[in-house]
Amino acid sequence: MTVWVIYFFLMEVLFKTTLGKRMMSIKTVSDNKEEPVTIVRYFLRSLVKCIPMINIILLFNKNHKGLHDYIASTVVIER
């Protein structure tokens, strides 16, 4: 689990994307889209994303945001 947190965190901080996001042509932005995603937000996303079964919330909200997006005030959009 530690490896996943480090992978997601470093990829998003250094390259602003992960390999999967790059292949799908999507990116992470701030909820209000005006301010950049901070290192703290990237860390929160990475940490929460690694909790097993937590993204089931994606099925039950109209914006299809994961819990990690709600906690970090981020959203994933197409490039």
Give a quick account of the main beta sheet: strands, pairing sense, barrel closure.
Answer: 2 strands, antiparallel
Q: Helices and strands: which structural class?
A: alpha+beta
Tell me the Rg in angstroms. Answer: 12 Å
Work out the helicity level: 40-55%
What coarse outline follows from CA principal-axis ratios?
globular
H/E series, N to C? Answer: HHEHHE
Query: What is the rounded distance between the termini?
Result: 28 Å
Number of domains: 1
Strand content: 5-15%
Strand order, main sheet: write it out.
1-2
Number of helices: 4
Return the average pLDDT rounded to an integer: 91
Protein name: RDD family protein
InterPro entries: Pra-immunoreactive, RDD
Main location: membrane
Pfam family, one: RDD
Can you give keywords for this protein?
alpha+beta; RDD; membrane; 13% strand; two-stranded antiparallel ribbon; 79 residues
Report on the structure:
- The chain has one domain.
- The chain has helices spanning 2-15, 19-24, 39-49, 67-72, and strands spanning 26-30, 74-78.
- The mean pLDDT is 91.
- With 79 residues, it is α+β, with helices and mostly antiparallel strands.
Layout of SSEs?
Blueprint: H1 2-15, H2 19-24, E1 26-30, H3 39-49, H4 67-72, E2 74-78
Antiparallel strand pairs: 1-2
Helix pairs in contact: 1-3
How would you summarize this macromolecular structure in one to three sentences?
InterPro entries: Pra-immunoreactive, RDD. By secondary structure, this protein is α+β, with helices and mostly antiparallel strands.
